[in-house]
Amino acid sequence: MKSSVRLLVSAAILSALSSVHAQDDTYPNEVDTHIGKLTFDHGIPTEEASEKLYYEMDYHRAVQSYLWSLPIVGQAQWRQSYLDQYDLKPNQSVFATKFNERSLVLTANESTPYIIGGTNVAEKAAIIEMPEGPIIGLLIDFWQRGLADLGIFGSNAGKGGTWVLTGPDTPKGQIPYIEGANYINSKTNNIWWLIRINAKPEDRDQVAESIKFGFHDEELRSQLIPGENKTGRNYQPRGMAYWAMLHDIIQEEPVEERDRFFMYFLKEMGIEKGKPFTPTERQSKILADAVVVGEAMAKNMVFRERLPGVLREDRWRLILGTVPGKEPGDAMEHTQRAEHYDRFDPRARFTYEACTTSEKMSFPKPARGMGYAGLFLDSKGRALSGDRSYVINVPANPPVDLFWAITAYDVDTRGLVTTDQERAERGSRHEGIKTNPDGSTPIFIGPEAPKGWENNWIKSAPGRAWFPYFRFYGPTGPFFDQSWKLPPIEEVDFSKYDRTSAP
To answer: Which pTM does this prediction carry?
Structure first.
């Protein structure tokens, strides 16, 4: 009996499937889609439908090309900002010590001075010679893939050393042999470095000037350019300027196998290696719209995160890497690769929001590396407005071996919140920070300071939204097991905190 029922059910399913397939044999002459009605002549798109379909296809490709190219355009813009402000040459570095100089870096910190610069090794290898000392640095290629950690978190554990930098086009005859050197082979000809000086204020200049740069056939020297409190653009351009910058930078770099399909997409939009960028009116219209929608998608990925594996138990999000103890998710890390794919969305999200990666930023170990957590909405699920007053009550004993800090960034620029205060960070390195009787440290962010807590306050910019990073430099055990948790961001009335002297 049961066998007969199964046969009858199977026959019914096969009949239904046959019916479906029979119905599908003839393509309808009209279909409703999200782009409107499409009409066909015996299955062949009409001229009107054809035009609409090609436009939609090219538009989608342009949007995805925007998301794909965010890291290299962001890096090209960073270099261009330094060319505009400092006329930066290969192997030179900007020594950024003041507030405005940090505005040229997406999501910079204020706790350490920076040495920032780069080189191009298409014709010859470059060399970095580093002393022993309190240095935290990294090397990245122009797709913002981490190449190496330098300094105390690097392979030499802060003992100094020599790094030889090469790329895909470096002639073999222009690569020196240096016994004991670290050889870094980049997939791009352009290489960038970001070096933090973790020394005492009185020692920072000496440490910075002891780091030497140069091509292998010239004398190595510090080549530092003073920051001079200059400021400028730190984020990817908008409009057609975005595509012009992409066109220019791809002329400098080889096409990797993983990117060949995207190069085809770009070719259809007038962007090719070895050819000028002269888009047609149709191409310009598509590209201009794609920048607007692409950036909206990038913002959505940053501020409305859906990637698995990055959300901590306290609802703060890891900026890099997977939350310890969770299954590897679609998180951003320094290689940008997973087992069976490259991390497309995480890369777009991170390189729109921030810049630079390294192994010790992605996979810190206790007291070796850096942890970064962000939060983008207040406790009521609203954007963090510069018109409102907030407190982040940091619990006692943050789990760090070096230091911790909260930094506030502008949503639109992803740079430091800029006000006449010229301050966007508070933490364990800053003088005069006060604590509560229970050891917690309130950090206040708002347009006006609570009386008695001015040193704990970051001034916000009315009319603009912001978001914070919490930095763990040298994270320790409670960071990894999440036994130490960050609180939500609460909107408060600062008057209840007003006091002429804090405990």
So the answer is: 0.92
